[in-house]
Backbone:
C-alpha cells in the first residue's frame, strides 16, 4: 500500500485525478488543446482572484521563478528571503547573471513591510521577490501589509512565489497588486508534479520589453505573445497528461468544493495541527505568521531537551502507511513538518497526529 503523504509535496493525488492522466494523446495545436488550456486559465483566474494573464509551463515552479526574475529585471532585483526557498530565488538570480541583493530574515521570522520599504526607498531596484509561504520555516509572509508598501513604488515589479500556498491560502492577486504570482501543480493544487503556472500583469509584460536577454524556454513575454498568436497555446509541446489532470482538478476546486470552502478546510486543518503541536511539542516559527498549508514543529517534546529521531519516527509511521517531512536545510533533524495541503482533511490530520503520539509513546 502506498504511503499517505504529509510532506510538503508532492501531496496526495486522488484516484480520479490520476486516472485523468490516462487520456489519449492529441495534437497540441488542436482546437481541443485550446479548449483545455483556456479552461485551465479561466479557472486559475478564479483561484487567484485575478484578471491577469495565466501562463503555463511544463516545469517545476523553479522554472517560472527563473523565468520571472530573468524576464522582468531590467535594473536590479531585491530578493527577500525568510528561508531556503527565498535563498533559492537569489541563487537563480546569481546564476542567471542578474544584478541582485539578498535581504534575509531571522529564521522563523517573516519578510516585513519595513524591510521592503527600506530597500525600495534607495531607488536601486526595479523588481522585488517575496516567498508567500516558506516551507522550510513554516512562515507565511504578510503580503497584505507588503502590498501597502508597494503602492509607494508603482514602477517596481512584484514577483511572488506561491508554490506551496496557491489553492490552500487565499491570495487576492489583483487587490494586492502582485505582478507575477507563480505556483506548481504538486502542492495545494494536488496534481502530480511537472507543471507550473503564473498570473502575469500587463505591467510585468511591458517591463519585459526593457530586458534584452530573457532566455527562451522560460521567457514570459514569448509565452504571453504566443497565447495571443495561437489562441491559448504554447511555444513548446506541453505535458498533455498533466493538463488533463490539472483541468479536472481545477473544475473540482472551482465548481464542486468551491474556492472559499477549500481555503476554510485548510484553515481548519492548520488550526488543529498547531493545537496538537502546542500540546506535545512547540510550533517553530513566529506565531503571528503561520503557514496555512503546513506546520513546522520543533522536534523536542515538551519537557525534553533532546530532539527525537525523525528518520526513526518515519520508520514507525511507515508501518502505518504514513509519512511526514523532516526539517529542511539548517532545520533538518531539529524540526519536522506536517503538511495539511491539497486534498487532506481534518480526519487525515487526526490520523497523522495520533500516529506520531503512538509511535513516540508520548
Residues:
Amino acid at each position: 500500500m502506498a504511503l499517505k503523504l504529509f510532506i510538503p509535496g508532492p501531496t496526495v493525488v486522488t484516484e480520479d485525478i490520476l486516472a485523468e492522466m490516462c487520456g489519449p494523446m492529441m495534437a497540441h495545436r488542436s482546437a481541443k488543446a485550446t479548449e483545455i488550456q483556456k479552461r485551465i486559465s479561466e479557472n486559475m483566474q478564479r483561484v487567484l482572484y485575478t484578471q491577469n494573464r495565466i501562463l503555463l509551463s511544463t516545469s517545476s515552479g523553479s522554472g517560472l521563478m527563473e523565468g520571472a526574475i530573468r524576464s522582468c529585471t531590467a535594473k536590479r532585483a531585491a530578493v527577500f528571503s525568510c528561508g531556503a526557498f527565498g535563498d533559492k530565488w537569489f541563487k537563480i538570480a546569481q546564476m542567471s547573471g542578474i544584478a541582485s541583493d539578498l535581504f534575509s530574515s531571522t529564521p522563523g521570522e517573516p519578510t516585513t513591510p519595513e524591510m521592503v520599504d527600506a530597500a525600495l526607498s534607495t531607488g536601486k531596484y526595479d523588481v522585488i521577490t517575496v516567498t508567500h509561504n516558506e516551507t522550510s520555516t513554516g512562515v507565511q509572509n504578510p503580503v497584505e501589509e507588503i502590498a501597502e508598501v508597494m503602492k509607494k513604488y508603482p514602477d517596481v515589479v512584484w514577483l511572488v512565489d506561491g508554490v506551496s500556498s496557491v489553492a490552500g491560502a487565499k491570495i487576492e492577486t489583483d487587490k494586492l497588486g502582485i505582478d507575477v504570482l507563480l505556483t506548481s501543480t504538486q502542492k495545494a493544487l494536488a496534481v502530480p508534479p511537472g507543471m507550473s503556472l503564473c498570473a502575469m500583469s500587463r505591467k510585468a509584460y511591458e517591463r519585459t520589453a526593457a530586458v534584452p536577454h530573457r532566455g527562451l524556454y522560460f521567457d514570459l513575454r514569448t509565452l504571453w505573445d504566443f497565447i495571443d498568436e495561437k489562441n491559448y497555446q504554447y511555444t513548446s509541446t506541453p505535458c498533455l497528461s498533466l493538463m488533463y489532470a490539472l483541468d479536472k482538478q481545477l473544475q473540482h476546486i472551482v465548481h464542486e468544493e468551491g474556492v472559499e470552502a477549500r481555503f476554510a478546510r485548510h484553515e481548519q486543518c492548520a488550526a488543529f495541527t498547531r493545537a496538537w503541536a502546542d500540546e506535545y511539542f512547540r510550533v517553530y516559527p513566529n506565531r503571528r505568521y503561520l503557514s496555512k498549508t503546513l506546520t513546522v514543529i520543533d522536534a523536542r517534546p515538551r519537557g525534553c531537551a533532546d530532539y527525537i529521531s525523525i528518520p526513526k519516527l518515519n520508520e514507525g509511521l511507515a508501518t502505518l502507511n504514513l509519512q511526514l517531512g523532516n526539517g529542511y536545510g539548517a532545520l533538518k533533524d531539529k524540526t519536522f513538518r506536517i503538511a495539511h495541503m491539497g486534498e487532506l482533511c481534518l480526519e487525515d490530520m487526526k490520523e497523522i497526529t495520533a500516529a506520531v503520539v503512538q509511535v513516540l509513546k508520548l
Summary: The chain has a mean pLDDT of 96. The first strand starts at residue 4 and ends at 6.
